[in-house]
Structure prediction request, 484 residues.
Amino acid sequence: MDDADRIREALNTSQTAVIGARCAVEYSGRAESKLATGDRIILVKADNALLVHQPNGNTPVNYMKPQTVHEFVQDEAGMRIKSRDAKRKEYMDILLEKIHFVNCLTLEDPHSIQLQGNEKDFSDYLSLHPELIGDGFVPVSREEQTAYGFVDLFGHDGDNNLVVVECKRFKAGPDAVTQLRRYVEKIKASKGVDGIKGVLVAPAITKNALQMAEDWGFTYKSVEPPRFLVKSKKDQRSIGDF
Amino acid sequence: MDDADRIREALNTSQTAVIGARCAVEYSGRAESKLATGDRIILVKADNALLVHQPNGNTPVNYMKPQTVHEFVQDEAGMRIKSRDAKRKEYMDILLEKIHFVNCLTLEDPHSIQLQGNEKDFSDYLSLHPELIGDGFVPVSREEQTAYGFVDLFGHDGDNNLVVVECKRFKAGPDAVTQLRRYVEKIKASKGVDGIKGVLVAPAITKNALQMAEDWGFTYKSVEPPRFLVKSKKDQRSIGDF
DNA sequence: GGGGAGAGATGCCGC
DNA sequence: GCGGCATTTCTCCCC
Prediction:
């Protein structure tokens, strides 16, 4: 069983294949790309996702999404992986000039990742600690699709003023302010009232964004998001002592 | 030379390592995550980027960025890859329970990808075909950092009206309208004039975005971006006949 | 290095 | 499926 056979088998089963190869890549779909010959790692997953990785960088240089159809072709021109995603109208050709290694195996992986510390956790935290937002803020709803759009946190100040809160886990930029502005304006328009406060909550803010917030009468409140949420009491972390 | 030695070597050189292993992963940094035991592909690149891939899906389930420091540890508790990115304050631990294979090699890859069909190409195309925007549009500058921000396309209508064009390669959503709105307002504020037109150009637009555009007096123009730009006359594509 | 915007963004959850 | 938005977004470009 040679390399070609191994690749063929991997493409036709739900195995995962890892190929080290000197190859050239062409892609056509949402954009078009060409990549001249070089040594790369090719990953073909069980769900037929395909990734081409160069020796440097975080992201794949080329890729095809899951459910792509891969065909291994070997003729006088050489070896190729021809990938077609007819539904998305995306196509890729990998010309394999030299195969360094091929590894195929079935990966048993029943678990999915548990992640915490996202923006939802931040708005939950703010909801539990409304004093961080100040001015007598009373939370009403969080992360909900209101009639006015998707609002992170929504409440009032106990003084007949509605309060719309937009929160960002990291430094807020102009986009955060315009988002907040959209919500506030939508509510103003539908309620026909002026007593609506907009509050932007984030650990930091860019100069421009702060200026924009002030121009629009919004409050910026600097709040550090919780380092991590402890979801179980017995949360013994082995990674803790760096 | 066993698996442990091979991994150790790969982590200490500018080789690229591909490891198939049953492992558990913990991450702490911008967020926190835990991933219980399962079979995965681990990629450690020449620049010390590290990726953990499950058998399905496009994106890595866990990762560390380039320039991370990796340490291979083997003791009574088992084998671990301890990754530390002190600068970014990101940390990862991979507990290796069973190693299926290890492949290390030096990847020679001098080329970078050539890609076309991005938004810049779209605005270039519109600049060459101003009639697509209509109303006697005369382009002046494109994709430039003006005093008012980064404007895709900027011009006038031959009738003393400035025209600001925001273009999107795909369906435009609310964000596109708010972006356009920011630029138009900035220019209005600094020039103190009202004769400024805002035009949103995209192949499609969402209902909400169209409503927003109309509310703000902007024009939406449906234009299909060019399938691809031919940058060289002799552009023989071998991928052509899918 | 920070800021701003695109990306072949991807993925998630809502309707 | 579309729509709206977060993402351990990533990457690039410009100041």
Summary: Confidence is low (pLDDT under 50) at residues 230-242 of chain B. Chain B touches chain A through 70 residues (CB under 8 Å). The first strand of chain B starts at residue 16 and ends at 28. The CA atoms of residues 76 and 97 of chain B lie 12 Å apart.
